[in-house]
């Protein structure tokens, strides 16, 4: 499903060039659950932005479902994002003073889904993300960190993407809440067969995935399978 080949990403700040990704290649199959680890500044988010069609590489190819994403225009990239990809970012960007349900419905507004269908799909996504119905009408600034996380996951799911990308989704959670959020990702992967790629600093968190890619100085330095944690 994902085929990254010889990806190089160079950032230019004035006259200074910095190579954030230095010849990275790998493939990820449909339905895999992959964690990306590596030191701060190693290029993880840069890689995720490319995988998420938010940015294109300086050179190299990125095939997503056999389509070469590395040569697309901004409009074409936006189409790919809308149709195929769900994002969970560390800054979740929920709208404050807006209910949980409305936050999850928002991507559907842009996708042109109307009326009762919109509400129904948002509720389904919240359920899939493990959010208790009691909170659907709470304001997003009046729920806990773990609940915010579930809303962010629900919002990433609501367009039914085949690929879910998450940048440090447990970064600011206590370890217990982090585990619960990871169990949610595991269920989405196993039961709904979504491909998931997740960045984390924590080994414990990464062990929930099937496979870990280690990035250092913009290079892939290790690619290994895990002894997968079980869902309790
Ligand atoms: N827009 C940009 N312009 C210039 N340099 C950038 C830009 N974005 C990232 N960089 C640089 O590229 C390198 C990789 O950044 P990236 O955000 O991918 O790291 P990361 O592995 O996600 O780090 P962290 O774990 O701290 O989030 C860093 O040295 C960073 O300073
Ligand atoms: Mg980062």
UniProtKB/TrEMBL annotation:
One of its GO terms (molecular function) is ATP hydrolysis activity. InterPro entries: AAA+_ATPase (IPR003593), ABC_transporter-like_ATP-bd (IPR003439), ABC_transporter-like_CS (IPR017871), ABC_transpr_LolD-like (IPR015854), MacB-like_ATP-bd (IPR017911), P-loop_NTPase (IPR027417). Keywords: ATP-binding, Nucleotide-binding, Transport. SUPFAM superfamilies: P-loop containing nucleoside triphosphate hydrolases. It holds the Pfam family ABC_tran. One of its GO terms (cellular component) is plasma membrane. It comes from the Bacteria. Residues 2-231 form the ABC transporter domain. This is Macrolide ABC transporter ATP-binding protein.
């Amino acid at each position: 499903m994902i085929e990254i080949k010889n990806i190089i990403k160079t950032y230019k700040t004035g006259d200074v060039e910095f190579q954030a990704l230095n010849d990275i290649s790998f493939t990820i199959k449909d339905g895999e659950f992959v964690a990306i680890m590596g030191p701060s500044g190693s290029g993880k988010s840069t890689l995720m932005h490319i995988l998420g069609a938010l940015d294109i590489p300086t050179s190299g190819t990125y095939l997503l479902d056999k389509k070469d994403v590395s040569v697309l225009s901004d409009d074409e990239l936006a189409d790919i994002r809308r149709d195929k990809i769900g994002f969970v970012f560390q800054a979740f960007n929920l709208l404050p003073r807006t209910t949980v349900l409305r936050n999850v419905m928002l991507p559907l507004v842009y996708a042109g889904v109307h009326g009762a269908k919109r509400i129904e799909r948002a509720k389904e996504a919240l359920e899939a993300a493990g959010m208790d119905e009691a909170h659907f009408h709470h304001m997003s600034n009046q729920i806990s960190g773990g609940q915010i996380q579930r809303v962010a996951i629900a919002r990433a799911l609501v367009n039914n993407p085949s690929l879910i990308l998450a940048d440090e989704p447990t970064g600011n959670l206590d370890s217990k809440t982090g585990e619960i959020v990871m169990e949610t990702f595991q269920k989405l992967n196993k039961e709904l067969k979504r491909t998931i790629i997740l960045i984390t600093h924590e080994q414990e968190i990464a062990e929930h995935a099937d496979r870990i890619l280690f990035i250092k100085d913009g290079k892939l330095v290790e690619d290994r399978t895990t002894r997968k944690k079980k869902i309790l």
